[in-house]
Amino acid sequence: MEVVPLKIMISGAPASGKGTQCEFIKSKYGLVHIAAGDLLRAEIASGSENGKRAKEYMEKGELVPDEIVVMMVKHRLIQMDVQENGWLLDGYPRSVSQATALEELHIRPDLFILLDVSEEILVERVVGRRLDPVTGKIYHLKYSPPENEEIAARLTQRFDDTEEKVKLRLVTYHKNLESVISIYNDVIVKVDGSLPKEEVFERIDAILSALRQKKLKTESTSSVAAGVAH
User: Can you give the pLDDT at residue 2?
Assistant: First the structure.
């Protein structure tokens, strides 16, 4: 299958299933998965100029300024593996200033996937989550309960997996999302994230497959036109 480098952004509230969908997309389409948090940690670990600057802010307990993170994203997007395989930008940009900075660098997606899940379902997903401190595995009391009583007895709940905390996180997420959406209105596609994860991916897969075909067609038309011009 011919590789057509797609440029995809994906956004979703906490517990929308974004991580799972990123895995599915990466596995089928070979896109390079880029999450700003991972990028930040990698740059700090490598001791790069941007990493050193970011570390200074973090050591003071301050947020790393947008321009530093945007430059990290830019540098990652021009690497050869990304140029060849395309990119999947996960949960970034999160604010209108980050989106605007990317626009100024002419970094724009072919598609912005928004996982749409009602607050009621998101809260239920988060509040029912439990962690097995022994294996590190995440369970859900309703959707993926523990295999036996022994595991059930030792499960713990993360301190911020409460209804009150998740509702606060959702308020922040929606407030930021509204401003970001305005920039990507023409390339946004909403996918119902409340469905089972396989069904959610079926929908995303159909959208990405159509996009890839469209890009293939455009590229072959342009190369034919270029050939004619010569």
Answer: 63
What positions carry a catalytic annotation?
18, 94, 129, 158, 169
pLDDT tens track for 191-210: 999 999 999 999 999 999 99
Q: Is residue 209 part of a domain?
A: no
Tell me which H or E stretch contains 34: strand 32-35
Contact between residue 159 and residue 126 where contact means Cβ atoms under 8 Å apart: no
Q: Residue 63 in 3-state DSSP?
A: coil
Whether the full predicted model's pTM is greater than 0.85, yes or no, is yes
Q: Tokens in use for 10? A: 């994906």
Residue 229 token pair = 């011009």
Task: Summarize pLDDT for 107-124 with one digit per residue, the tens.
Answer: 999 999 999 999 999 999
Residue 133 inside a domain? The answer is no
* Widest distance between CA atoms in the chain: 73
| Number of structural domains the chain divides into | 1
Q: Which two tokens stand for residue 112?
A: 């912005």
Give a yes or no: residue 172 inside a domain. Answer: no
CA 85 – CA 30 distance, rounded (Å): 6
